[in-house]
Amino acid sequence: MGVGRFVYTPILPLMHTQAGLSAAAGANLATANYVGYLVGALAGILAPVLVRSRLVLRGSLVLLTGTLAAMPLTHSTTVWGLLRLLAGAASALVFVVAASSLLHHLRGHPSHLPGWAIGGVGGGIALSGLLLLGLRSVVDWRAAWWASAALTALLTVGSWNLRPEGAPSASGEKTEGTAPRTHRWFGALFVSYTLEGIGYIVAGTFLVAAIGQGSPGWVGNGAWVLVGLAALPSPALWAWLGHRWSRPGLLLAALMVQAVGIALPALIGGTAAALVSAVLFGGTFLGVSMLALAAGAHLRFPRSVALLTAGYSVGQILGPLVVAPLLHHGYHRALLLAALVVLAAAGAAAVLRIGFPHHMVVVGHTAPVRQRESTEDDRPAAAGPDDALAPHSAN
Question: Residue 101 falls within a domain, yes or no?
Fold first, then answer.
């Protein structure tokens, strides 16, 4: 999923220079992918049977690989848009099935395990960056897409026998009827996470192209490799930190760090700033998702995961459209606007911290939840695998 969804970012500069793709058309292709991702995520939410289907997983893996292989077969931006839309839907379903499988099969295990598994998205990003770093000087944009399809096919073979989650038990708990009133905190969280969707996706789409405008040719793809390498351990790290400190406080900190990372290439420029930017951005974007959606699960707001995922996905769709008018002057203004939007998300996270109910009782536990240091024996009372992973089952 990390390759299939995010390889577009390092290939985008090649498509600009070799395939005649305009900056505005590039933004539209990104938007098509995010629309597809929203469709796939909502399908997994509204039709849970899809999440438990090995056929859906395998079909989505094959479809995702096929969309990458088909990109070089046309110069039509309309067809490219359709292919990226299908890739978005397929990658969302792959992620939903895989994350739900982790939630089901690793229940009761240490929560860093699903965190490391979710870090596979970062691994895919790093592999896509390494692929383009090695090929950009010897192949054109068509070969880059075919090579990414071959890499995705190889990873598909490795994930072919993943077991989806089992059918839910008849005694599954229902929390909606007993959930306390947490509307004001959830409202701040929803605003924060939707704004993060707008800001993060601008960097996630255009960071390589922006860095490439003012740095040597290798730096853009090298920075993308760093994004992936930093993202790989970040979910496990943020899950560990979430046991010990307030999630709203960590969310505020992560968003502020991310805003700095996004703004650096536009404000300073140069190789050092680009590489630091990559580490800061890669180390926070999966962590923000984990923290935000775990906070929503803690609040026990009805349908919190679905609502937050929808807001985040809509933000991803809006991001490229919002910055499209700025792309005529390069990518730096777009990155600055994205950083400001992420700072606004941090402001909403600061509001979330005010009076946040850290000591709410979690259904199934008699002791209040406290954001404190925990041991392996009492971990589920603070944040078990469900809390650590539930955000990603829909995101």
Answer: yes
